[in-house]
Amino acid sequence: MDMDADTVDWPRFLTRWSAEWADARRDEVDPSPEDETSRREGWLGYAPADGADIAALEERLGCELPPSYCEFLRVSNGWRHAGGFVRELAGTEDAHWHEDAHRLGDTFDAAWDDEDNPPEVRAQVGLWARALQLHVDSDATYLLLDPADVGPDGEWAVREWAGWHAAEPRRYPSFAAYMVAMHQEFHHLESGSRGQRNLGFVNETTREQDAAVGRARTLSLRGDYEEAARLLTEAAKYGRPYADELRDQIVRLGGLPGFGRLQPLPCDSAYLSDLLPLAAAVLRDSGRGAEGRLFADPEAFPDTARAAADILREVAAGTWRYTPGGAFGEAVDAAREKARWGDTDTAWRILRAAIPRWESLGPDHIAPLGLLADPVLAMVLTPERRRELLATPRGGEQGPGPAPTGDLDPVGLSWLVRPEGLGSGRRSAFRLVLVEGAAPAELPDLIGSSTVLAPPLRAWDVHHPSGRRQPSQREDKALLSVGRAAPGWSFGIDVEPLPFVGDGLISPAPAASARGGHAIVVWYEPRPGAEVFHLSVARAGDPLYALTVRAGAVEEITGALPAELAPHALGFTTPGEQPQRAAAARALDAVAERHGLTLPRLALTQGRLHSFESVSWSRPPDPGDFHWTAAIG
After folding, report:
1. Average pLDDT value for the chain
2. CA nearest 280: which of 298, 295, 268?
3. Do residues 423 and 417 lie in contact, with contact meaning Cβ atoms separated by under 8 Å?
4. What is the mean pLDDT of residues 60-80?
5. Which of 312-321, 368-377, 433-442 has the lowest average pLDDT?
């Protein structure tokens, strides 16, 4: 049945509603006489109002009534059980001006009339004094028709308010829209809650909406998530099984605006594999933590509590991994291996090619949401890639695929020193080691103070772990996040370096190149008036050349500096923050072109990478050197 509020077939709509209500009450014990009559007769309304009845009401009120309310009255002169909280809705005899009968106007008007409110809020001022009251008997619910809020079709907006809502009055653009919403509310209440569905509540409307959910699921798996979302949004208003669950997955992947709010339950087919880990990850990232939640309570969920507790601990520690089965699971493992070393573009290409082979775990599962909970893979799925995932046919369905999103990581190295590079403030400074002929996991053996790589962490967590000692210029051991820079090259980068040590620097380039390839060290510090750019290059353990520039003054040149890195050619001899930044960008482009280097911006700015503590970058102080360390915090 067409439930568009603009084209309501009132006799058919009200007859169906009455029959559905009566069927839902067939086993009710000790109903009221009025309910018993309505159940027996299959009619929640009254006799129709005729033209004279409506004309008399309009004369009494002194105005012409909105069209859909009049059309309703011509079918039923009043209504019982409009939704869950209005027991009696007024007909021609009971409708009257509210006239702020309960003295609510002063409080509401004072809040609505604030000059900072948008026009639509301020337009409500005076509502309680001017509105037409339609509720006759209700559960502390006010139902008002607003003669000052009139659409181009002549319809008056309906405002519904209950003190226990603790919110602004709900607005419906017309009486017809309100009645359609109340029919939906009736269905939602009768359908039961998640996990405790009223399976006996079956009628023409539930069958129509359940069929719409089935169509939406198929459309979603074919990649038409926008039409699927429209069908699911409507079905969710009726409380139909799986509608909220499927819609929530589209929301979480960015196919609908808003935030995913649905709490996972053990009855969800993907509860342990996707939904609980994602809920825990959201809690963790919000700072609220996930340990000890209801999910792990054996009294509440005896069958899943132990597994849930393990998941919550792993998510909190950042060690949980998404492990779907089959060919898609193999692709997830391969993509994670790329992403954990920073190659997020390749990781996405692997996942994108495998999405058609993803398999649903049940009727309430339409996407691999576990990817969003995986600490390494989550950042690979940018908003654009999430929508591409949604638009990709999967789960055995066929359809046209979306245009692929392009790679995100820029070519070269100069992006590191641009304002939007690694971030603002201190994070725009960095020191970098690029090593040829060594895998990322081998860097601690070359320049580490230990040979242990930390698990993949965000840059903030690398530099601000709980209980970490204050770094000291006297022993400047950098915390380097590591990954792959190009075929055959690895990198280690510190995005929160101590101030540049000048002639106290011990470049790690010779040690990093000990296996025979090149090693390149870059230290960039953009402090206004004291800008620093340092470059040192070694090969097979021997220094080749070095350049240090501070605030437009060349402090060091050693070895045979390549012509393209000459300070005057790059523009380093021009002082000032912008000229020095531009010169540093040109220098990095020259280094990148000379050696074919790139760095993964997405992984460095949003991802999680392995890290380790390097050997000290500063020489030990000579006897008699003055030294001090300050700590703030």
Report:
1. 92
2. 295
3. no
4. 98
5. 312-321
CB 268 within 8 A of CB 275: yes
CA–CA separation, 197 vs 244, rounded Å?
13
* Token reading at 390: 């949604």
Strands 79-82 and 430-436: unpaired
Pairwise CA distance, residues 69 & 592, whole Å:
72
Token pair for residue 410?
């820029």
Q: Which strands sit side by side in the sheet containing 156-162, from one edge to the other? A: 96-97, 132-133, 141-150, 156-162, 170-172
Residue 468 exposed, middle or buried by CB count within 10 Å (0-12, 13-18, 19+): exposed
Reading the block at residue 311, the tokens are 């998941």
pLDDT value for 632: 42
Q: Which residue type does 244 have? A: D
CB 147 within 8 A of CB 63: yes
Q: Of 63-72, 193-202, 427-436, which one has max mean pLDDT?
A: 63-72
Buried b / exposed e over 534-566, threshold 16 CB at 10 Å, is bbbbbbeeebbebbbbbbbeeeeeeeebeeebb
Contact in structure between 286 and 385 (CB atoms under 8 Å): no
Residue 610 to residue 440: CA distance in whole angstroms: 9
| 146, 128 contact by CB (below 8 A) | no
Distance CA 559, CA 50 (A): 102
The amino acid occupying position 18 is S
Convert the pLDDT of each residue in 556-592 to its tens digit.
Answer: 999 999 999 999 999 999 999 999 999 999 999 999 9
To which H or E segment does residue 441 belong? none
SS3 state of residue 437: coil
Residue 274 per-residue DSSP state: I
- The string over 396-414, giving b where at least 16 C-beta atoms fall within 10 Å of a residue's C-beta and e elsewhere, is ebebeeeeebeebbbebbb
**Structure tokens of 161?**
């308010």
Q: Where does residue 354 rank: exposed (0-12), middle (13-18), buried (19+ CB within 10 A)? A: buried
pLDDT value for 624: 56
- Average the pLDDT over 237-256 and give the result: 96
Handedness of CA 74, 75, 78, 83 (dihedral sign): negative
Predicted TM-score of the model (pTM):
0.89
**C-alpha dihedral (570, 573, 574, 577), degrees to nearest 10:** 80
Q: What's CA 139's distance to the chain center, in Å?
A: 37
Dihedral (CA of 294, 256, 151, 4) sign: negative
- Give CA–CA dist 633/631, Å, rounded: 7
Let me know: does 194 contact 243? Beta carbons within 8 Å: no
Assigned token pair, 220: 């979603």
DSSP string, 421-457: SS-SGGGG-EEEEEEET--GGGHHHHHBSSSPPEEEE
Query: How far is it between the farthest Cα atoms of the chain?
Result: 109
Q: Are residues 501 and 476 in contact, defined by beta-carbon separation less than 8 angstroms? A: yes
138 DSSP β-pair partners = 86
- State residue 630's pLDDT score: 45
